Amino acid sequence: MSKTSDKAKLAMIQSFANFMDSGSQSATVVFYESPQPANPSVAADPSKKLVTLTLPEPCFKEVTATYVELHPSDTATVIKSGTAIWARIFNGAGEVAADLTVGTDISLANTNLALGGTLSITSIKLRP
Question: Which secondary-structure segment (H or E) carries 17?
Fold first, then answer.
């Protein structure tokens, strides 16, 4: 199996951030209460959506020697009470960019989201 250098991995993450900015809309992060699909090509159950956060455009903030940082999201209102299990990132064209497992790939101060409450992401750092 081949190994990739950290510099090459950072370049891939920067390309990922550029992909997120493609399209006419802003990239979004949607949190769900359902089990996570097997892969990003499997459609998410829209009835399990808890909240949609919007990233500014461009969403890319900076590249460092160890990570690519994105700008913070907006503050969005939770549309359904539930426990956030996973999140899906969509680019500005509405294409799936990635699925993230809450607690492993992305951390929330409180995974139990209440209807009418608010949520935002203050720090997004993608690491190789």
Answer: helix 6-20
